[in-house]
Specification:
heterodimer; A: about 0% strand; elongated; B: alpha/beta; 6-stranded mixed β-sheet; 10 helices
């Protein structure tokens, strides 16, 4: 068994022992079902509250398709609270190993830094992708029951696009965790930068091309309209390249021993 | 800098760093070397440089003539404060560390109980490391350093943080393992090092002060001193002996008198007779050998 598998398996065992494997999927499932339930009951809540004051609700305006509801799960639940939770759950990914000396300790063994970083990224991405998948499936089930169904291919393609954006989130947070020593700084920079990326989508077409967060809007587009522009290939490439770049920076940073052991 | 290469038997270290300057030393295989120095002397830095946890600005660390970064399988490293994943059991920790060193799992099955019993952790294999005491963690640290049968074991302050019992146990373990491998350990307590190591390298402010054996260190610092302990009524005696021609100096502190003479062998009886003639009430008389601790203090404080 090579070092990569040993390290990746250690990460997965750690997630099980620290109960992360329980709470992160639950959080995403809760986030996922929030949007369809809220959308479904909002008209009746508004009607109840507003009825006495003579405001009429045109139900045809509020009725949404399943795709729209699922898109807003991605856009307003996963892309806001979801991203913050991902960052917070993995801000110590490398930082905690630096702080307690395990990183230096592991590297006194014949272990390549790329195996270390690779094992981290692989295991955490695998786990976070699974958690997000659970949330997405839960959201779809509620959407299907309360609204309309969504074509299966749209459902899958949109989610694959979304997972690319998640890959960038994981890589970027790992890079921050490698470079900085304070969890607060890591979380702050990651949250500001990644939410910032998400917010500026749509402001400038050129910026959108190099913005990994565009993957999230492409996913929403598919869910709402069932189509996607050709530009998406370009964005897939850019997102993959930026993720690889972030992973590489972590790799170089540790290989150059620029980390400080406190 | 360091072209002091004499022979390349086992390890050879030629380093320079801000915490460690122009440091060069060689260790032959089978040796047990203590790196002694006050806090902040650069001991840990030096050990980390040798373990390839830091890169030296200038110079290199060679093991059997090869760069240390290519020889990591041959190094066992015990950190100053061994910190393991608290959620792992002792056995899992050793399996994890062993696999990282490239040992196959089926070989580990046999190797782990062996090292565990060597360091005296039998029966604790399946306890969580988080519940371990400092001494047990230290022993687990030694176990992981031994597991892959390295040719060089580096120990950073292996006994400094332990109580007298734990210290005793760990020193016994080191005594055992030094029979099989080369050991380099750092310490600021010379009496510990004295028990396990033949060779001392004393460093201060990152520079080598002394590279010597214990016997040589004691011999070099033997100062021809005699030590008297007397009672109150002999207090004026020390003024008399100051005038004797073979007495080079007298040091008085409380009831003890330290007399430096030309030649201990010749002068000790003369001085004793002189004391008896003067009715000095002797409590204790000895030839004063400075302890390693005192020599160490003198070396690192005075120079």
């Amino acid at each position: 068994m090579n070092q990569f598998t040993v390290l990746a398996r250690k990460e997965l065992v750690q997630m099980v022992r620290e109960m992360k494997v329980v709470w992160l999927p639950i959080v995403f499932i809760l986030l996922g079902i929030t949007q369809p339930i809220m959308n479904y009951y909002l008209p009746s809540i508004l009607e109840m509250l507003g009825g006495g004051q003579g405001i009429s609700i045109d139900l045809s305006l509020v009725t949404q398709t399943g795709g729209e509801v699922l898109a807003s799960t991605l856009g307003s639940q996963f892309d806001q609270l979801g991203v913050i939770i991902i960052i917070v759950s993995m801000m110590g990914i490398v930082q905690s190993d630096k702080a307690n000396g395990m990183l230096a300790f592991i590297l006194t063994r014949p272990v390549r830094v790329s195996s270390y970083i690779g094992g981290k990224i692989f295991s955490h991405y695998l786990f976070i992708a699974c958690s997000v998948t659970f949330g997405y499936i839960a959201s779809y089930l509620y959407t299907y029951i309360l609204f309309t169904e969504v074509p299966l291919t749209d459902l899958i393609v949109a989610f694959l696009f979304y997972l690319l954006w998640v890959l960038f989130i994981v890589s970027f947070t790992t890079m921050m965790s490698t470079i900085f020593n304070s969890q607060g700084i890591i979380a702050l920079i990651s949250i500001v930068f990644l939410l910032g990326c998400r917010v500026i989508v749509g402001l400038n077409p050129i910026l959108d091309h190099i913005n990994p967060a565009s993957m999230s809007t492409y996913a929403m587009e598919i869910l709402i309209s069932g189509t996607w522009s050709v530009n998406v290939i370009w964005n897939i490439m850019i997102t993959l390249i930026l993720s690889a770049l972030a992973i590489n920076v972590s790799n170089i940073w540790i290989t150059g021993k620029k980390y400080r052991v406190n | 800098m360091g072209s002091e290469v004499r022979n390349k038997k086992c390890c050879q270290v030629v380093l320079k760093k801000t915490a460690v300057h122009h440091f060069s030393m060689e260790i032959d295989s089978g040796e047990c070397v203590a790196l002694a120095g006050p806090n902040g002397a650069g001991k840990s830095t030096l050990i980390k440089l040798i373990a390839d946890m830091m890169n030296p600005d200038i110079g290199e660390v060679l093991l059997n003539g090869k760069k240390i970064s290519k020889m990591k399988k041959e190094i066992g490293y015990l950190p100053q404060y061994p910190n393991f994943f608290p959620w792992m059991t002792a056995k899992e920790t050793l399996t994890f560390m062993g696999q990282l060193s490239g040992i196959r799992k089926d070989k580990l099955v046999g190797a782990i109980p062996e090292v565990v019993s060597k360091v005296g952790l039998s029966g604790e294999e399946n306890s969580k490391v988080g519940t371990f005491s400092g001494g047990m963690k230290q022993r687990l640290g030694i176990a992981q350093a031994l597991l892959h049968k390295p040719s060089l074991i580096l120990m950073d302050e292996p006994v400094s943080s332990l109580d007298p019992i734990g210290r005793r146990e760990v020193l016994n373990i080191i005594n055992e393992i030094k029979e099989e491998t080369t050991v380099l350990l750092s310490t600021h307590i010379l009496s510990d090092a004295e028990e396990v190591c033949e060779r001392f390298v004393i460093i201060k402010n990152g520079e080598k002060m002394e590279d010597t054996t214990m016997m040589e260190l004691l011999r070099k610092n033997n100062k021809n001193k005699l030590h008297f302990k007397i009672t109150e009524n002999g207090k004026c005696w020390e003024r008399k002996i100051e005038k004797l021609d073979y007495v080079k100096g007298v040091e008085l502190s409380g009831n003890s008198v330290k007399v430096e003479v030309n030649d201990v062998g010749l002068n000790k009886n003369m001085l004793l007779e002189h004391a008896l003639e003067n009715n000095v009430n002797l409590v204790k008389f000895e030839i004063d050998n400075e302890s390693l601790e005192e020599i160490f203090l003198k070396l690192v404080v005075e120079k």
